[in-house]
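User: I'm putting together a teaching handout on how sequence relates to shape, and I'd like one worked example. Could you take Lysine transporter LysE from Pseudoalteromonas lipolytica, show the sequence you're using, and then write out its predicted structure as tokens right after it?

Assistant: Happy to. First the sequence, then the structure tokens directly below it.
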Amino acid sequence: MDISLLSIFISVALAHFLALLSPGPDFVLVVKSALKGNQKNAIGVALGIAIANAVYIGLCLIGVGAILSTSVGLMIALKVIGGLFLMYIAFHALKAPKSAYNNVVIAAHSSVAFSFTCFCKEFATGFLSGILNPKNLLFYLSLFTVALTPEVSITFKVILGVWMTLIVFIWDVAIIYMLSKQRVREKFVKASYFIDKVTGAVLGVIGFNIVKSVWSKQ
């Protein structure tokens, strides 16, 4: 890898990682999932988010991303559906009674069995969160458009895409494992009811603002 390609790789990888550090809906979902029970089940959310990112990265690599970004109707639909999806998650988090969090407390002090069904549900939640967020498409599109010129080989672009997908997954898994540590988990679990309400409210506000922004432009 020559110096110019190495410089591009470092620039794009750094910009991508800094974007990951900014908490968004995906981060909130990862935290919620990590606090609910088995960390292996929670990894489903991380995998779903990573795959959704991979889809958008792939679309940008083959040029479809640029076409999609110019489709006003599609972008509006993605925003509305994504906003409603976040509001749906928020609704269930906010309506849950305090007694529903007893299982979370138990989970912190016992071994919660891995469930493939739960894993798939978590995966679906993570994937939908990522794929219904048009900001992900626009972010990768801008990243690839600004940093990668037509002269850069497709092989290099694929390597960069795989790298970014892995970083998304590894970062989310790291958060899950950090919250799975007994001391950290016990502190979070004691306030799990309030944390879930706050994260639910945050997701609801984000979802509402997304839908509102679309509505106000009509």
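A couple of points you could highlight for students: The chain has eleven helices and no strands. The mean pLDDT is 78.
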